[in-house]
Every structure is written in C-alpha cells, then in structure tokens.
Amino acid sequence: MNGPRHFLILPADAAARLEMPERSELIWTTKHPRSSYGLGVMLDKDDEIFDGATFRAYRDGFGARIETDQPEKVCRALGLPIGEPGIVKVTE
Length: 92
What we know:
about 90 residues, 7 strands
C-alpha cells in the first residue's frame, strides 16, 4: 500500500519561468523543529519548509495547486484553513 501523496502542480508556462518542474512532491513530516503539536510541516524536494504563504504566492501569482489525498492534513501543516482554494483532493 502506498503512503499519502502530496504534489505541487504548476502550469507549464509558470514552471518554465520559475525553472521548476510542473509536478513536485511535497513531504509531510512531524520530524522537523518547526513542527508542533503533531500538525507537521510540508517539505519540498530540498527539505526546505513549504508554508502557506509560499503556496498562496504560487497559487495567486502562477496558478499553482496542491493535489493530495489528505487535504485537511496539508491545510493544517501549511497553517491554512481547511477548504483553502487550490488544495485539491485526488484519489489514485
């Protein structure tokens, strides 16, 4: 059985401008100093914190979204309200 999956998705033109992949996996973890109360944090491919402000900047500026099978967990880790636009539940 596969574990939870969380992906930052960028439109092709935005990915090219930012020199980023169109699809990047985000990792949820509680094993980081900035994680508190079991809410966890999201890490990018470089093990850097990916936070709610960064997500909103990518969403509002470049049309990004996060595809996940656990949107509530992602919202809590990003410090955003559950139901935040652009955090999309997917099942695979």
